Amino acid sequence: MLRFLVLYTALALGANVAQAADLDAIKSGQMESLVTYDEPLPLPPFTVTDESGDEHSMKDFEGKVVLINFWATWCPPCREEMPSLNALQKEFGEDGFQVMTIATGGSNSPEKVAAFFDKEGIDVLPRFHDDANFAARAMGVLGLPVSVLVDKNGHEVARMIGGAEWDSPEAKKVIQALIDED
């Protein structure tokens, strides 16, 4: 497992820029920090749980563009970007797109996540949990927040380390390019 994590992290962070939708050509503003790859990366298998304790995997989102957001209730940049993720989901959720928020670590109880979402008016995002950090480790997440863009084929095509305004025109342009890709 450790070897896979090191290899996956090296591939994700050390890959050269570019990819099928040519995201590099359209990145601007904050999205210039988005790391893209020569070739889309296969995702490692992982599961997360929802508020009811049911397990979910990426198979639940087949055929959709997915923005996986690893975050924590105690993380200020994570908390700051959550309203923009909610707005992005509201705008693109009907178009084969899903934001998948994953609260990582044991200190993010379903009750804490629910209280934060309710206080901030986060009303369309799923509340997934990764209490033991298995998903975060599998995905090579070394700090928070980290957002991973997954294409319709279930491959990682880009990664943002740090917070972002996901409902900005620049971010929407990147998301739309992936949605429009055949």
UniProtKB/TrEMBL annotation:
Residues 37-180 form the Thioredoxin domain. The keyword Signal applies. Keywords: Cytochrome c-type biogenesis, Redox-active center, Signal. It is found in: Cell envelope. Gene3D superfamilies: Glutaredoxin (3.40.30.10). InterPro entries: Redoxin, Thioredoxin-like_sf, Thioredoxin_CS, Thioredoxin_domain, Thioredoxin_ResA/DsbE_sf. Pfam families: Redoxin. Residues 1-20 form the signal peptide. This is Thioredoxin. It comes from Thioclava nitratireducens.
